[in-house]
Specification:
The structure holds 3 protein chains of 3 kinds. Chain A is of the alpha/beta class. Chain A is built from 15 helices and 11 strands. Chain A has an 11-stranded mixed sheet, sandwiched between helices. In chain A, helix 2 runs antiparallel to helix 3 and helix 7 packs antiparallel against helix 15. Chain A is globular, with a radius of gyration of 21 Å. Chain B folds into 3 domains: 286 residues, no CATH class; 113 residues, no CATH class; 57 residues, Arc Repressor Mutant, subunit A. Chain C is an alpha+beta fold. Chain C is 35% helix and 9% strand. The interface between A and B is large, with 45 and 29 residues. Strand 9 of chain B pairs antiparallel with strand 3 of chain C, so a sheet runs across the interface.
């Protein structure tokens, strides 16, 4: 059962074929068996998970019919969880037991989910390979010599390897979609403002957005139903009427207008990924969709603009980590400046420090206009490109990543790592919703396709993704080496 | 060489909201350290700001009160610097789009002239916490209760030409803020703080001289003295052929001098950028009109009205409107006693004298407006004389009984019974035959002496007019 | 835009980071490389473009002015590296 979708587990729980305690124990067994190798979890909450599962089973007997009741979930370690270690993948927070819950965590608690643990991630979500975590690399379940992608690499690996039924992630420049592509699963980044950021440790405030990491588009819809909604505690959270994202999953795609950005099929895209995405587009045509090329003229500037906006915001967001009120403080500081500098130099890893420096530089006197202001203008151009495209098409489809998962340690220079997110970053700059779903396997590694929608068109994206998954089975492909379900209870 | 002084003031006012600018923590003064510091105020990771509507309303209220442009769209920015009392490592403030734009204040100077001083802008920002410098094994203690409290920073144009003008501007600002009820504005408690930018230049020069900034002055008097001493210092340097260094200075009241606050920081680079956790604050004309409609009568308007309605001098009216509470007090006294002029004298002289002498706020005064009005009523209906009234006023400080009871108990009631008065008159006439003879010989002014004798005999209680009349009658 | 070592030191100080002499060269090279990537955006004329700070055209919500927080000093100061008498302790703050 642990390799089933949330929808399937939910049905089984409802039918009484299995209890939440049973399925939770099965996942815990699987974690015990595989986490040593994959390093997907930083913290496993065995005891509290079983208590929550028992409470969910009791709730079900008492008439609770929440669709997520009793479903085991993993939260990215960027979400604050009350009384549970919350590290953000950093030494800076290696001892931080949060006194409060993120709104996302609260919502899943309210929905009755069972928290299995907190997943590994790139430090402060800065990375595309999960190699910047203070808690060690996460391994790709498809090939443990490869990265799982990042920054939500732990969540993606956990879902792909059946170490949980579903997981949360966050996406600032592709951090849900790229690991979903590398791990052969479904990842969804909602429109900016859909999901509350309260309690989600900030990387780049105007770009960060939480979303589901699941085994199917339908599961993503189920998770989104629980996640979205106005939160008074987050000024950037949007007040939208409640929506059931599962309602339109089965709408036929006849007449769907798909835009294909020529810039996403240019130099740098690997042949196998291009072929897989083109095959998927052909499948959509069979389902009645029409394909049209669209021009995202400024998309080649997205990485440049992003590496100003995100580090600039991060440089300020990470100033609170100063060793005064919580978290890491260096040993025996000689004075205040020494405390600041050593705490921050010892508490942050190289990539985080690099981005703080870039952001500090971009905002410093004399450079603001040339960098920060310029980047905000590019951001406008990128958004305008999308707005124009969505006048002509319903969704935009292309590859999520130029290639399959790369080898651990193979990308040592930051610029080549930054270019990993070349297709995903523009979406964050424009604040749009987008999914990545599996569309093939090459050389034993999965490949992902990105589906981008207009603002608040989450339901449309999920419909397009779900219909593809109804007619193909790429999302059901499992990582070979660890496909067996030995952990099952 | 003749010099002229150019001063600009930056005044920080704590807005008296119940909760903080971006969190639901209390702003109550004087709580135990860090008991009013929430997870947001302590900058725990993942916490986010939500803007307090009352802080906005108060800022707009100030803006419309000084006739300022109101920013229809204000934007918060982050000002980045590290300090242990700044938990986020940045202060949220408003750089390019403040809530309050250009406005002006009119101040009255000691020679009676008026001067308009421009207000450049007023923006909303967060306060920092406090670093306590007493020893904790060589460490400093940080209290974040104040962190995140709302401030309004009011920046003047560099149009202030003297220490006197600076103080007049500050006092006017203080009065308006108190009228608007947006802050306690108590300088000694830090709910109003002032940074002074001072430069001097030769008369006739149009370029500004290099300025220095004197930080955190906490009384009107020190503002005045700090400016005078800083101007003196700058003048001496320039006259000796020296240069003024642009720097931050501190006023030392004991030595009456300013001293440099040299910091290790080479140059501050605050790296301002728009605060991404907050959205633009948008207000419309309707909002502004509603705030305007709720404005109280402001000091200038009140002064004109008092002068006209109560037939007072501009100066007297000015004294009475110097605080909203005093003006309200005066109006009660004036209307209940039905003698605006007498009420003005009693309030501006006796009452204010009393408050000054004891260093009391109006609220501390044991003599409430209603009681003072009754005292004046009793002067008017001749129950007591003006002179006896001073005695009653003194008694009222310790005795909370009503005015009539005090007069009764102390036997201060004016004697108007003509039989009684006749007794005093007869006695004085028989005791002072020389003066009576002088009067009869045509030396009319001696009547004053005789009236005085009668008053003394009656212990001040006889009605002087009646005494006067009866004396003249008897000596004919 | 190429950076020199002194600029890197200045930025590091602003960000309260310590860059040791042995790291300085590599940090400078890395940042210079990243700035080269960033500078690609300078190729586009954005003279007439309005900066975009936030993807959605929405405005700030306002919070009612009421006290909703209670004293949490005890639980929060458990997280602190050093505290005493309800205060967070830091190396001496020099004014």
């Amino acid at each position: 059962m642990i390799n089933s979708t949330v929808a399937e587990i939910s049905a089984a729980l409802k039918a009484g074929d299995i209890s939440s305690v049973e399925i939770t124990q099965a996942y815990l067994n699987r974690i015990a068996k595989l986490n040593g190798e994959l390093n997907a979890y930083i913290t496993v909450c065995e005891e509290s998970a079983l208590e929550q599962a028992a409470a969910a089973d009791a709730g079900r007997s008492a008439g609770n019919t929440s669709p997520l009741l009793g479903i085991p979930i993993a939260h990215k370690d960027i979400f604050c969880t009350k009384d549970i270690l919350t590290t953000c993948g950093s030494r800076m927070l290696h001892n931080f037991v949060s006194p409060y819950n993120a709104t996302v965590v609260e919502r899943f608690n309210d929905a009755g989910t069972v928290l299995l643990g907190k997943t590994n991630m790139d430090e402060f979500a800065m990375g595309s390979s999960n190699e910047t975590s203070f808690f060690g690399d996460v391994k790709n379940p498809w090939n443990t010599e490869c990265v799982p992608g990042g920054s939500s690499g732990g969540s993606a690996a956990a879902v792909a390897a059946d170490l949980c039924a579903m997981a949360t992630g966050t996406d600032t420049g592709g951090s849900i979609r790229q690991p979903a592509a590398f791990c052969g699963i479904t990842g969804f980044k909602p429109s900016y403002g859909r999901v509350s950021r309260w309690g989600m440790i900030a990387f780049a405030s105007s770009l960060d957005q939480a979303g589901p990491i699941t085994k199917s588009a339908e599961d993503a819809a189920l998770m989104l139903n629980a996640m979205v909604g106005l939160d008074e505690k987050d000024s950037t959270s949007i007040d939208r009427p409640a929506e059931d994202f599962t309602a339109s999953l089965n709408q036929p795609l006849k007449g769907l207008r798909i835009g294909v950005p020529k810039q996403h099929f240019a130099q740098g895209l690997s042949m196998e990924v291009e072929e897989a995405v083109r095959n998927a587009l052909a499948e959509y045509e069979k389902l009645g969709a029409t394909i049209k090329e669209v021009d995202l003229t400024n998309s080649h500037l997205s990485v440049s603009a992003y590496y100003v906006v995100a580090p600039a915001e991060a440089s300020a967001n990470l100033s609170r980590f100063d060793g005064v009120r919580y978290g890491y403080r260096c040993e025996d500081p000689v004075d205040l400046e020494d405390m600041y500098k050593r705490t921050r130099s010892e508490g942050f890893g190289e990539e985080v420090k690099r981005r703080i420096m870039i952001g500090t530089y971009a905002l410093s006197a004399g450079y603001y206009d040339a960098y920060y202001r310029k980047a905000q203008k590019i951001r406008r151009l990128i958004k305008d490109d999308f707005d124009r495209a969505f006048e002509e098409v319903d969704v935009i489809i292309g590859p999520t990543s130029p290639h399959t998962a790369f080898k651990l340690g193979s990308k040592s220079d930051p610029v080549s790592m930054y270019l990993e997110d070349i297709y995903t970053i523009a979406v964050n700059l424009a604040g749009l919703p987008a999914a990545s779903i599996p569309v093939g396997v090459a050389n034993g590694l999965p490949m992902g396709m990105q589906i981008i929608g207009a603002y608040f068109d989450e339901a449309k994206i999920l419909n397009v993704a779900h219909q593809f998954q109804q007619h193909t089975d790429w999302h059901k492909q499992k990582p070979g080496p660890i496909a067996s379900n030995e952990g099952e209870a | 060489m003749e010099w002229e002084t150019v001063i600009g003031l930056e005044v920080h006012v704590s807005l008296s909201t119940k909760s903080k600018l971006f969190s639901g923590s209390s702003t109550e003064f004087g709580a135990d350290p860090n008991t009013q510091a929430s997870i947001f105020d302590c900058a725990l990771p993942g916490t986010l700001p939500v803007f307090n509507e009352e802080a906005l309303r108060m800022a707009v209220r100030f803006g419309v009160a000084i006739g300022a442009e109101i920013g229809k769209q204000s934007v918060f920015d982050r000002k980045n610097y590290f300090y242990p009392d700044l938990p986020k490592g940045y202060q949220v403030t408003q750089l390019d789009f403040p809530t309050v734009g250009k406005g002006a204040l009119t101040v009255t100077l000691s020679d009676g002239s008026e001067k308009v001083i421009g207000v450049t802008r007023a923006h909303i920002e967060e306060n920092a916490g406090k670093s306590l410098h007493e020893e904790f094994h060589g460490m400093s203690g940080i209290d974040l209760n104040r962190a995140g409290e709302p401030l309004l920073e009011i920046v003047s144009e560099p149009e202030i030409a003297s220490a006197e003008e600076a103080v007049a501007y500050l006092k006017k600002l203080h009065t308006i803020i108190r009228y608007l009820d947006i802050s306690d504005a108590i300088m000694a408690q830090g709910s109003m703080r002032c940074d002074v930018n001072v430069s001097i230049r030769p008369v006739g020069e149009t370029e500004l001289g290099t300025r220095t900034e004197i930080k955190n002055i906490n009384s009107f008097r020190f503002v005045e003295k700090a400016i005078i001493s800083e101007v003196q210092r700058q003048q001496e340097i320039l006259e000796d052929g020296g240069r003024i260094i642009q720097e931050t200075r501190r006023y030392n009241a004991d030595k009456d001098e300013t001293t440099s606050m040299r910091s290790k920081e080479v140059a501050n680079d605050y790296r301002y950028f728009p605060e991404p956790d907050l959205l633009p604050v948008v207000i419309d004309d309707e909002y502004i009109a509603a705030v305007k409609a709720q404005l109280p009568e402001l000091p200038d308007a009140k002064r004109s009205r008092f002068a006209e309605e109560y037939a007072l001098s501009e100066y007297d009216a000015g004294v009475l409107v110097s605080s909203r509470e005093l003006a309200e007090y005066y109006e009660i006294v004036a209307s209940q006693s039905d003698d605006a002029k007498l009420a003005a004298n009693w309030v501006s002289q006796d009452l204010l004298g009393l408050l000054n002498k004891n260093n009391w706020e109006l609220a501390d005064s044991p003599i409430q407006a209603e009681r003072l009005a009754m005292l004046i009523t009793r002067i008017k209906d001749k129950t007591i004389s003006g002179k006896i009234a001073k005695t009653v006023f003194e008694t009222m400080l310790e005795d909370e009984s009503d005015v009539d009871t005090i007069i009764e108990n102390k036997g201060l009631k004016q004697v108007t019974d003509s039989g009684e008065i006749e007794k005093f008159v007869d006695e004085v006439i028989s005791n002072n035959p020389d003066q009576v003879q002088q009067y009869k010989d045509g030396k009319q002014q001696v009547i004053g002496f005789l009236v005085g004798q009668c008053m003394q005999l009656s212990k001040g209680k006889a009605n002087p007019a009646q005494v006067n009349e009866l004396l003249r009658e008897k000596m004919q | 835009m190429a950076l020199d070592k002194s600029e890197v030191e200045k930025i590091a100080h602003l960000a309260r980071l310590h860059v040791s002499d042995s790291e300085a060269e590599e940090v400078t090279t890395r940042i210079t490389d990243i700035l080269a990537l960033i500078d690609q955006m300078q190729s586009v004329d954005t003279e007439s473009v309005e900066p975009l700070a936030h993807p959605l055209d929405v405005v700030q919500r306002l919070r009612i002015d009421e006290v909703t927080e209670e004293n949490q000093r005890e639980s929060l100061q458990k997280l602190a590296p050093a505290s005493e008498d309800g205060l967070y302790l830091v190396p001496k703050v020099l004014e």
